[in-house]
Amino acid sequence: MPNNPSRDLFPGALEMMILESLRRQPAHGYALVQHIQQRSNNLLQVEEGSLYPALQRLLKAKLVKAEWEVSSTNRRVRTYQITAAGQRRLEQQISSFERMFAGIALVLDPGKSPAS
Amino acid sequence: MNWFSGLFSHRRTCDDLAEEMRLHIEERTEQLIVGGLSLAEAERAARLSFGNKALLEERSREVWQWNLLRSIWADVRLALRQLRRSKGFTIAAVCTLALAISANTVVFAVMNALILRPLDAPAAEHIYVIGHANSIWGYESYPNIRDLSDRNRSFDGVAADNITQAALDTGNDPSLAWLYETTGNYFDVLGLQPYLGRFFHAADEHGPNSAPYVVLTYAYWQDRFQGDRGVVGRSVLLNRHPYTIIGVSPPGFVGTFIAFAPNFFVPLVNQEHGDNMLSKRGSRWISEVFGRLKPGVTQAQAAADLTSIGSYLGKNYPNDVDQQLLTYKLQRPGLASAFGGAITAFMAGLMLLAGLILLAACANLGSLFSARAADRAREVALRLALGARPIHIMRQLLIEAMLISLAGGAVGLCGSVVLLRAIGAWRPFPQFPLNLPLNPDATVYAVALLLALVSGFLFGIVPIRQVLRTDPYQIVKSAAAGPMIAGRGRRFRLRDVLLVIQIAVCAVLVTSSIVAVRGLARSMSTKLGVDPRDTLLAETNLNMSGYKGDRVPAMQKRMIGELQALPGVAQVGLVSSPPLKMGWEDVDIFSDRTPDLRPSSSAGDAVFFAVSPEYFQAAGTAFLSGRLFTLQDDGDAPRVAVINQQLARNLFGSATNAIGRHFKTRNEGRLQVVGIVEDGKYTANIAEDPQNAIFVPILQNPRTDTWLVVRSNGGAQLAGAIRAKLRDLDPGLPVFVQTWNEEMNGALFASRMATLSLGVLGVMGAMLSITGIFGMAAYSVNKRLRELGIRVALGAKRKEVLQTALGGAFKLLAFGSAAGLLLGILASRVLASIVYQATPRDPLVLAGVVLIMAVLGMVATWLPAQRALSVDPMILLREE
Predict the structure, then answer these.
(1) Has residue A116 been placed in a domain?
(2) pLDDT at position A5, please?
(3) What is the sign of the dihedral through the CA atoms of B196, B201, B203 and B208?
(4) I need a surface site. Which of B336, B496, B534, B832 has the fewest CB within 10 A?
(5) In this predicted structure, what is the pLDDT of residue B312?
(6) Residue B773 within any structural domain of the chain
(7) Does residue A4 lie in a domain region?
(8) Are residues B157 and B300 in the same domain?
């Protein structure tokens, strides 16, 4: 992908994480950032704004949908929801990511078997 | 989301996005304040952790933009940057193309104006000019036209017209005017409505002189009558006969000939034609016949219908009609039909040459682009290796080519508009109202744009094969050696082929222009049979001032006498129509033994002149043997003639045999040869084949429309004196005086135009071959500088360095020139019909072409050669 949305992430990683977060529950942009940073124990330093180009791409591909709402804390927020297409895409990406990760792990540490 | 709804929702998307980002930063700020920061610190920290808001917003918005358009725009910007970086290349390319496109546009615009533009009449596509299958001239006699009109079943109407001059007197000063004399149904067949007043119709005609009506053209009405609406109904004098102006034709309509701008129209039955020309079937004097085809009738059917009328005429009037001219054909109206295809052929030839120029320019640019692509092979290879698709790289190269071609097209179009203005303002025939609507119209602009795009595409795709073949691995690997060396010796490069094509095309152009210039030089030095220097011509038409019968020769004698008496005048003669002028007379000649004077049994034809005794001296025609005419050779004396050497040889075997012998013509009967004069040029085409010529005494062949030939003693300004003297003799006589040289411009016009246009094209060809060879040589020297440096370091001599650096370029030049010369020789045969004595098998032409191409090669390789010779091996090797 030409416009890599963040430093230190491979292409498509951010989108994958957004979709996974939204699969658990719909959220607005700020909550998504908080969620990703907390879940990664702050290991992933995502530039907050880089979320938005990724969200636009997902919106355009109809993997998520968005709506303006008023949150429980009484703020006006634009809440994103994953669509059925988004669910399917997420499953594909996770499985291919896992295969790739297993392959990389094997190359980096040939002594260990991936199962152990 | 389709792009249409996307267009409308785009703005909302952007607003949503901005709002969302603002709220995000706001929320973060609030959180940080809760965490204990001050407002200012919190805002700053929130912005920092958000990142570059403007950039991110733009990136988010880009997601929604139309991808193709965006990337094409990016390509355009990249191409512009690339072109700006290599200014020399860009300027050279744009200029080359501008030259080629303006040449094509000018030629096309002229062709458009002269040939392609349709007649300005409703449903003009059904109007056809009726011509003879065996003659380029459409002349017909009045009775024949009546028969064609009455007996055909294919036309809704057949009309005819003839261009002529008359003296128009609106009450004060009589002036010469140009007009169409037409059949009464002229405007009805064309389907025109008057702008003002009414037209004349077939019903107005009841035999000779029954319809004294004038219909003005819109332009003349504006010009001469200042658009006065009261002009309708006004009486004027035409050749001293009363006529009534009855109407004005619609603006823009100039008759069927199109290239002629008449002043007005009068019914043919009303024009005076001596000897009752309206009833003579044998006199073919009406220049154009045309008709409106009935719906559903094809051209071939109509031509067959007319030809069957032709055979009826042939059977019933065998002595009056020319059996050769009874087969008819249909042609489109306009200049093209009037000159029987000679102009069409010439314009098509010019268009072809201009097309060759464009082709050469494309070949030139193609090889430049190909060289550029080779230089950029590493860049291209890197982009391919990094995942760019070949189609994107090709698109980028094509966009570059298109930008250049559009810029070249725009510059070329501007140039051609300027040039066309200049041509349009030019009056080659001062006396003849030429109508050349050269202003470029939409068609011309469209053609220029199309040419630019097509040529851009042509030279744009040249390097594409090269790009597709690119193997990134090979090129990156051999980067140190450079792509050129890597590809060397592998194949005969496309660039070389293109250069040879280009040089060949240019050599063709140079050859044809030298042939043309040679031809013109010869036509200038050719024997005209007259000496136009220090001679004035004055056209007088006594018919226009009402002279008839015996008053005509008396007045002519007075005019000659009075002018002869003017100081500075050497000799004055009278001739029916001077040689080398449009409108010569042509007669069939018969040997003395031929009993019947049918056209089919003639012994040939001759150009016919009626002259006064002093004419030969006044015109400067050399008298070879026999006697001159005298005033005793009048209507009561035996008929005599002076002929030229050509006719003497053709009819009697030799000039010495001819004196005293007899021959016949249809109108003159039996004529005795009394003298022989030198050969000359007689028709309006200086490139004519040797012609027979007959001169008869004007007293035996009286006529009212004559030209006074006034030879001065040299240097005298006689024009004003002649005009004044003739006015004194008869104030009602319209006179037009000009020098014979001016008059002859008309005869030389075709050949001069041909030479001029071919010369210009030849110069353009030469320029193109210089740029082509220069580009190639400069490029090859540049690429091989290091090799040359090593050679110099190893002790190569200057000659060897030059040989290495430029040998290839010269080989291509020699090869291309030879091919072009050969093609040029073949092509120049076409020129022979227009350019006087154009023959490419002239040693001077051959030598000229070889010399010019060699000089072009020298000039073009001069700078690269200097560069190659100045190679300093130390500097070059140190650079490594």
Answers:
(1) no
(2) 41
(3) positive
(4) B832
(5) 92
(6) yes
(7) no
(8) yes
What is the distance in angstroms between the Cα of B387 and the nearest Cα belonging to chain A?
A: 11
Q: Which amino acid appears at position B32 of this protein?
A: L
- Helical segments of B526-582, H only: 551-564
C-alpha B228/C-alpha B231 separation (Å) is 6
Q: Which tens digit of pLDDT belongs to each residue from B489-548?
A: 444 577 778 888 888 888 888 887 887 777 777 766 677 888 888 899 988 888 777 788
pLDDT of residue B139: 84
At which residue do the structure tokens 């692509």 appear? B373
CA distance B60 to B74: 18
- Candidates A9, A48, A72, A75: best to mutate against B (most CBs of B within 10 A) is A48
pTM of the model: 0.65
How many domains, chain B?
4
Residue B132: give the domain boundaries. Answer: 124-333
Catalogue the E-assigned strands of B483-558.
Answer: 535-541
Kindly list the residues of chain B whose beta carbon comes within 8 Å of any beta carbon in chain A. Answer: 1, 13, 16-17, 19-21, 23-24, 27-28, 49-53, 56-57, 59-64
Would you say residue B529 lies in a domain?
A: no
Q: Which of B308, B333, B358 is the last residue of a domain?
A: B333
Q: Note the pLDDT of residue B865.
A: 84
Stretches where chain B sits below pLDDT 70 are 1-10, 65-68, 172, 271-275, 335-342, 387, 427-431, 470, 472, 475-492, 523-525, 687, 714-716, 746-747, 750-751, 827-841, 876-880
User: Does B16 sit within 8 Å of A78, measured CB to CB?
Assistant: yes
B181 vs B243: CA distance, rounded Å: 13
Residue-wise pLDDT for A5-60, tens only, equals 444 567 788 888 899 999 998 999 999 988 888 888 777 777 888 889 889 889 88
Q: How many domains does chain A have?
A: 1
Asked whether residue A41 is domain-assigned, the answer is yes
Does the beta-carbon distance from A29 to B16 stay under 8 Å? no
CB contact under 8 A, B51 and A48: yes
Whether residue B111 lies inside any domain: the answer is no
A30 vs chain B: nearest CA distance in angstroms? 6
- Is A47's Cβ below 8 Å from some Cβ in B? yes
Q: Which residue has the tokens 């790289």?
A: B393
* Chain B touched by A53 (CB under 8 Å): yes
B328 & B382 share domain: no
Mean pLDDT rounded to a whole number for chain A: 82
- Tokens 């030429």 belong to B434
Q: Is B198 exposed, middle or buried (0-12, 13-18, 19+ CB in 10 A)?
A: middle
- Residue A50 sits in a domain of what CATH number? 1.10.10.10
Same domain, B328 and B363: no
Predicted pLDDT of residue B478: 60
Q: Which residues of B touch A28 (CB under 8 A)?
A: 20
Asked if A42 has any chain B CB less than 8 Å from its own CB, the reply is: no
Do B504 and B642 sit in the same domain of this protein?
no
- Report the chain B residue with the minimal C-alpha distance to residue A61: B1
The H or E element containing residue B113 is: none
How many contacts does A have with B, using Cβ atoms within 8 A?
60
- Yes or no, beta carbons of B57 and A47 under 8 Å apart: no
